[in-house]
Design goal:
Helix content: 10-25%
Largest sheet: 6 strands, mixed
Distance between the termini: 41 Å
Number of domains: 3
Order of helices and strands: EEEHEEEHHHEHEHEEHHEEEEEEEEEEEE
Length: about 375
């Protein structure tokens, strides 16, 4: 199967369905040829709208779509070479698997010998050899999505668009299908955009993640960056970081929940200004405290252990802070910090956050500044 890797660009794309509310706001993406990018975000953030604009199923209110530097904003969908795979496979129930896969080729009047060859190759790619004569009602959900994927690949598209294609499958099948898509994409080098609301799914399948929030691009970077270097408080919150408002005074940030020390090198960063500190629970550790312990010490959040759940290979601790907020901290049964602490519900604890794991966002500045370096997440 021959495919063409295509550079895909969206430049200041905005979209509205009713001319009153923008679904997308000045979205700009530059996706390299052969790259797999995940569009991630909550429901209603504009992910599917962006996909439809790339496919040519929806015209943007403003902005442009380019394939390999050529303007494609007004090119009809059937001439773009972009194909979509939807959450529901949308197979024709009265056609066989082979006939479903061949449908697009027949619409293009492809010669029969070529159709047979390409259909057979597509079915081999998705590991459905021998399923040619079956009908959709004889297939499992995962097999139906494989047929839908084969139907997309058989046309040898320039851009492959996947709109939450595995959300209806169970956990095991979803992992299996993600591995299949990643393997096929790496092998065929098709420029691919994968829509999902699942952070783990985005992280395991994509070269880069474009996080959309309220129709805007919040951050576009490698998956690891969202766990080590979120660019905004909103991106941090979406990826599970705890964000607390406070005021920076030299190398400390005072918050309603306690004082947080930053590396000494940041002492000159500024003082007496509003700031937000952020840390990922994976960088924190629990420390039991006795009744004589202070209610708040530097880089420690006082709290009460609400639940302890044994997940087999790790323990999940849920800590209630005085504010009523909850923090979940997972610990492997054994890691480089030693065994997981044998605590019980009701234990008074500190959530300790190392200074090097703390980030500071300065919302009053023109650019979000970051103080401190994020430690490795275990």
């Amino acid at each position: 199967m021959t495919t063409t890797s295509t550079r895909l660009q969206l430049k200041d794309v905005s979209a509205s369905y009713d001319r009153a509310t923008l679904v997308l706001r000045d979205l700009s993406l530059d996706i390299a040829a052969g790259e797999l990018v995940a569009l991630l975000g909550p429901s209603g953030c504009g992910k599917t709208t962006a996909l439809k604009i790339v496919a040519g199923l929806l015209r943007p209110t403003s902005g442009d779509v380019l394939f390999d530097g050529q303007l494609f904003t007004r090119v009809p969908a059937e001439r773009r070479g972009a194909v979509m795979v939807f959450q529901k496979p949308l197979l024709f129930p009265y056609l066989t698997v082979a006939e479903n896969v061949a449908f697009g080729l027949k619409m293009r009047r492809t010669p029969k010998p070529e159709v047979a060859r390409r259909v057979g190759e597509a079915l081999r790619l998705v590991q459905l050899e021998g399923y040619d004569a079956r009908r959709p009602k004889e297939l499992s959900g995962g097999q139906e999505q494989r047929v839908a994927l084969a139907r997309a690949l058989v046309t040898e598209p320039r851009v492959l668009l996947l709109d939450e294609p595995f959300s209806a499958l169970d956990v095991g099948l979803r992992a299996e299908m993600r591995s299949l898509v990643r393997s096929l994409q790496s092998r065929l080098r098709i420029t691919t955009v994968f829509v999902t609301h699942d952070q783990e799914e985005a992280g395991t399948i994509a070269d880069r993640i474009a996080l959309l929030l309220d129709g805007r691009l919040e951050q576009f970077s490698a998956p690891r960056d969202f766990y080590t270097a979120p660019s905004t408080p909103e991106a941090a919150r979406f990826f599970g970081w705890k964000v607390i408002e406070g005021a920076q005074r030299g190398c400390q940030v005072e918050t309603p929940l306690g004082s947080f020390a930053l590396p000494e090198s940041d002492a000159s960063a500024g003082s007496d200004r509003r700031a937000m500190i952020a840390f990922h629970p994976a960088s924190a550790r629990l420390v039991a405290r006795n009744g004589d312990s202070p209610t708040s010490v530097e880089n420690n959040l006082a709290g009460r252990l609400e639940t302890v759940v044994d997940l087999g290979t790790r323990i999940r601790y849920t800590v209630a802070l005085p504010s009523g907020e909850l923090i979940e901290i997972d610990r492997a049964l054994h890691d480089d910090r030693g065994p997981a602490p044998p605590m019980k519900s009701g234990t008074q604890v500190f959530v300790h956050v190392p200074a090097e794991a703390v980030k500071v966002f300065l919302p009053d500045s023109d650019e979000t500044e970051v103080r401190g370096q994020r430690s490795e997440i275990s």
